[in-house]
Amino acid sequence: MVLISPSLLSADFANLEEDINKIEDYADALHLDIMDGSFVPNISFGIPVIKAIRKVSKLPFDVHLMINNPSTYLEAFANAGADWLTVHAESCNHLHRTVHKIKELNCKAGISLNPHTSEEVIKYLIKDLDLVLVMSVNPGFGGQSFINESLEKIKRIKEMADEVNPDLIIAVDGGVNSKTINEVVKAGASLCVAGSAVFGKVNPAEAIKELKTLVK
Ligand code: DX5
Ligand code: ZN
Hints:
This protein is an alpha/beta fold. It has helices at 16-23, 47-54, 74-80, 95-104, 150-164, 181-187, 204-213; strands at 3-6, 30-35, 61-66, 84-88, 108-113, 131-135, 169-173, 191-194.
């Protein structure tokens, strides 16, 4: 069974509590896209918003840090209510140190890989990770099309994980929808992030249920 982490980026920012309530009993986590206007060409929301919505949701907060120098802010995100903290391999000079810092904060540690980044960068760290987030679009915006080459990367990460870390969550982010989800899960993903395919729909709860049924 695939897990679904709806991305709040596609929710109505004027009615966050209302939108979160719609998915609270159906989602497996809530994906929070943090963008700094430097690592990615967009600015989203930050620590005060996470703190505020922490009061209205019991879902695990799956925080995707699309920011430069993420290690500077890890403690602040953990204190705001993050449960999983995912940093980009491309934004860290000392990935090993950053991953262990996340674990010391009692959060689940994840590494995200941009579409051009090889899975080789996690080879010597994979056993320490809770999650790998494969970007299947160039990060920065919701509603983009799935990049097909990501499927091969997911398969390779699944093979690596089966050898040394079978509990690793392989997550996929970007362009996951009713047309792509089955291939993504077949390739080895156990968690799918979906923004427009959930919050972009009239009934987000039904959308989550439908995505799950499309996985054969
Ligand atoms: C993209 C973000 C994604 C985004 C996904 O930079 O990391 O989480 O919200 O949106 P969809 O599912 O619409 O591609
Ligand atoms: Zn994301």
